[in-house]
Write a structure and sequence with these properties.
By secondary structure, the chain is mainly beta. It contains four helices and 21 strands. The protein has helices spanning 12-30, 206-210, 313-319, 353-370; strands spanning 2-11, 60-66, 71-76, 79-83, 89-94, 123-128, 137-142, 149-153, 162-164, 185-192, 195-202, 217-222, 229-238, 249-255, 259-267, 277-285, 295-301, 327-335, 347-352, 379-381, 396-398. The strands form five sheets. A five-stranded antiparallel sheet has the order 10-11-12-13-20, with no helix packed on it. A five-stranded mixed sheet has the order 14-15-16-17-21. A four-stranded antiparallel sheet has the order 2-3-4-5, with no helix packed on it. Helix 1 crosses helix 3. The radius of gyration is 23 Å and the shape is globular. InterPro entries: Plexin (IPR031148), Semap_dom (IPR001627), Semap_dom_sf (IPR036352), WD40/YVTN_repeat-like_dom_sf (IPR015943).
Length: 408
C-alpha cells in the first residue's frame, strides 16, 4: 500500500530543471569534480542564527499567501493571524473557543450548539477570493458551529467578520451553509465568469451527516448578499452503511482550466478494514456542476529497479512520454501497513494530468461498451444512485529513482 504525503501540480519545465541538476551532479562526480562522501543523517539539533521567523502559539493548520499585498495569513486552532513580509503580526481574529468572550466569530450566527461538541475551533479552510481586486476577502471555515464559514476583509481586518450563514434556510436536515467537516476538509475556489465557485471535499461519518449535514463532494456559490451559500451541485455522500467503517481522507485539491481535482486516500476494499490503501484522483468539470460528471482514477507509485543510462532533460521528458509545458502532478509516497503505520522510506512520482484524463475517458468507454450493471458505489446522490461511470480503477503507474528521495 502507498500513502501520499502531499501532491502538488506543476509544469514539466520544473521537472526538466530538477533532472538537469541531478544529471550535472552525477556527471560531475564521474569527472572527479565532486568527491564522493558517505551519506549522513540530518542533524536536527543545529541552531541557525539571525533567521527571520514567526512563532505561532499552536501548530499551524492552514496558510494562505497574498502576493499582491505581500502578506501571509495563517490559521491555527482558535485564531487567524495576518503576517507582513517581515514576518510581523499585523492583525488577528479569534475563532474560538466557543463560549469564550475573546471569540470574535462565535456570536455572529445563531447556531444551535451541541454540548458534546468540542469547543476549540480547528481551522479547516483558509482561502483568498480569486477576485481579490474586487473582493479582498479571506474565507475561513472551522470545525465548530457545524462548519459554517466567515469572511475576513483583509483590507480592513479590524472590522467585524461577515458570517456566511442564513438562519432561515438552514435546518438540522438541510444545511447549505454547513460547509466544513471536523474530520477534514479540502476546498478550492474557482472563478468562472464573474462568479466564484467553491468546490468542497469532506471526510464524513454518521455524526457529521446526521445533523446539519455535510456532503463528501459538493459545489457552492456564495450569495450576493454575502450571508450564505447556494448549493450549485447538491453533491454526494458516502453510503450510510459505510460511513463508520469506510473513511475517505481528502488530502489535497487543485484546479486547471477544465477540471477541479481531489486527492483522497481510501481502502481498496470498502468491506475489509485491513485492505491496502489506495490514492484516488477524482475530478469534476469546472463548467458542468453535475454529480454524474464526477470521475475517479487510481494513482500508483512503484519502483522497479533496472539499469538506466544517463539522460538529458529533454530525453528524460521523452522517456516519460511528456511534452514541454505539459501539466504534471508531483507526489511523495510512502509505504503504509494494513494497520495504517507509515514506513520510513519514500519516493517521488510524477504523473501526467493529460494521461490521467485519458485513462479516465478510456475507462468510461470500457464500462459503456461492456454494458455492465451498476456496481457497488461508495457514493450516492440525494435522489438517485450514481451510475457505473462514476468510479474507475485503472492505475497510473510511474517508476522513479527512489534512492534519491529516501527520507531519513
Amino acid at each position: 500500500a502507498i500513502f501520499p504525503y502531499f501532491l502538488v501540480p506543476g509544469m514539466i519545465k520544473w521537472t526538466a530543471l530538477l533532472w538537469i541538476i541531478l544529471w550535472i551532479s552525477q556527471n560531475a562526480r564521474g569527472q572527479g569534480l565532486c568527491p564522493n562522501s558517505v551519506r549522513q543523517q540530518v542533524d536536527f539539533n543545529i541552531i541557525y542564527q539571525n533567521l527571520t521567523y514567526y512563532q505561532a502559539e499552536k501548530p499551524i493548520q492552514n496558510i494562505a499567501i497574498n502576493t499582491e499585498d505581500k502578506q501571509i495569513y495563517i490559521g491555527s486552532q482558535n485564531i487567524i493571524e495576518g503576517i507582513d513580509s517581515h514576518l510581523q503580526k499585523i492583525w488577528e481574529v479569534k475563532t474560538g473557543p466557543i463560549g469564550s468572550p475573546d471569540c470574535q466569530t462565535c456570536k455572529l450566527a445563531d447556531v444551535e450548539i451541541d454540548p458534546s461538541d468540542p469547543v476549540d475551533t480547528d481551522n479547516e479552510v483558509l482561502l483568498i477570493d480569486p477576485t481579490a481586486y474586487l473582493f479582498p476577502y479571506l474565507y475561513v471555515c472551522g470545525s465548530t458551529q457545524h462548519g459554517i464559514c466567515y469572511i475576513i476583509d483583509y483590507s480592513q481586518p479590524l472590522e467585524k467578520p461577515q458570517c456566511l450563514y442564513k438562519q432561515w434556510q438552514n435546518t438540522q436536515f438541510i444545511c447549505p451553509d454547513c460547509v466544513a467537516s471536523p474530520l477534514g476538509t479540502r476546498m478550492i475556489i474557482v472563478e468562472q465568469g464573474a462568479t466564484s465557485y467553491f468546490f468542497v471535499a469532506n471526510t464524513v461519518n454518521d455524526k457529521v451527516t446526521e445533523k446539519y449535514p455535510r456532503r463528501s463532494i459538493s459545489v457552492l456559490r456564495p450569495l450576493s448578499t454575502e450571508d450564505g451559500f447556494e448549493l450549485v451541485m447538491s453533491g454526494f455522500t458516502v453510503l450510510p452503511n459505510l460511513r463508520q467503517s469506510y473513511k475517505i481522507d481528502y488530502i489535497y485539491s487543485f484546479a486547471t482550466e477544465d477540471f477541479v481535482y481531489f486527492l483522497s486516500l481510501q481502502r481498496e476494499d470498502a468491506s475489509k478494514s485491513n485492505s491496502p490503501f489506495r490514492t484516488h484522483l477524482g475530478r469534476l468539470p469546472v463548467g458542468i456542476h453535475e454529480v454524474w460528471m464526477y470521475r475517479e482514477v487510481v494513482l500508483e507509485c512503484r519502483y522497479v529497479p533496472k539499469r538506466r543510462r544517463r539522460e538529458t532533460a529533454s530525453n528524460l521528458a521523452k522517456q516519460l512520454g511528456l511534452d514541454v509545458g505539459e501539466k504534471v502532478l508531483y507526489g511523495v509516497f510512502a509505504p503504509v501497513s494494513e494497520t495504517g503505520r507509515i514506513g520510513k522510506e519514500s519516493m517521488l512520482c510524477v504523473f501526467s494530468l493529460k494521461q490521467a484524463n485519458q485513462a479516465i475517458e478510456e475507462g468510461v468507454k470500457t464500462v459503456i461498451s461492456r454494458a455492465l450493471k451498476p456496481f457497488t458505489e461508495q457514493y450516492r446522490n440525494t435522489q438517485t444512485c450514481m451510475n457505473q461511470n462514476a468510479t474507475l480503477s485503472k492505475p497510473m503507474i510511474r517508476e522513479r529513482y527512489h534512492n534519491m528521495f529516501k527520507s531519513s
